[in-house]
Amino acid sequence: MKILLTYLIYHLIYSVLGWIYESIYCSIDQKTIVNRGFFYGPYCPIYGCAAIVDIILLGKIKEPVLVFFLGMLISCVIEYSTSYILETIFHRRWWDYSDKILNLQGRICLLGAVTFGFFSLFLIKILHPLVVLITNHAIVFNSIYIIIFFLPLICIDGIITFFKHSHKHYSDLKIYKYCKKTILRIISLR
To answer: How close are the terminal C-alpha atoms of the chain, in Å?
Structure first.
């Protein structure tokens, strides 16, 4: 149980850090403040998932060059798969690298792969050891409370987001309107 709670906390931390990175990067690129991500809340789960996969698969590898290249590969697989799944379900693209050199169907590109290779290296060699150090004490005492508080919010946000991006007629449902109003009041982002 403790290992599951630990990874849920890590997922939450890296999802929030991913949202911060995406929002800053896109805000600078678009010259306006952007709340980046699929969800309403301040998290990008793709970053949390990629970080967990990196931690599990790359965490014990000592050679930085190998971590970098495997991180590139892992990130590309996750980003391509996520793009494909989101586009298949919602008939919409959240990112498009078609204008970038060496892209694959606009879903992934060389620049993104290199960037995420460096992110993976930074995660494994610097950031995650710090996060482990900081969270080790907190996880034992507070993780269940953190999960009990955040997991329902994220689930509600996921339901609202699904309805929002699925079809227009869902937005007319009373449950959708109630959940949206409730979650927006709680997280006060939009």
So the answer is: 35
DSSP lists the bridge partners of residue 109 as 103
Q: Can you give the pTM of this predicted structure?
A: 0.83
Secondary structure of 72-116 as H, E, C letters: HHHHHHHHHHHHHHHHHHHCCCCCCCCCCCCEECCCEEHHHHHHH
Residue 61 CB-density burial (10 A; 0-12 exposed, 13-18 middle, 19+ buried): middle
Burial state string for 3-13 with b = 16 or more CB within 10 A and e = fewer than 16: eebbebbbbbb
Buried b (16+ CB within 10 A) or exposed e, 137-169: eebeeebeebbeebeebbebbbebbebbeeeee
pLDDT digits (tens, 9 = 90+) for 62-100: 999 999 999 999 999 999 999 999 888 888 888 999 999
Name the pLDDT band for 60 (thresholds 50, 70, 90): very high
Are 37 and 44 contacting, i.e. CB atoms less than 8 angstroms apart? Answer: yes
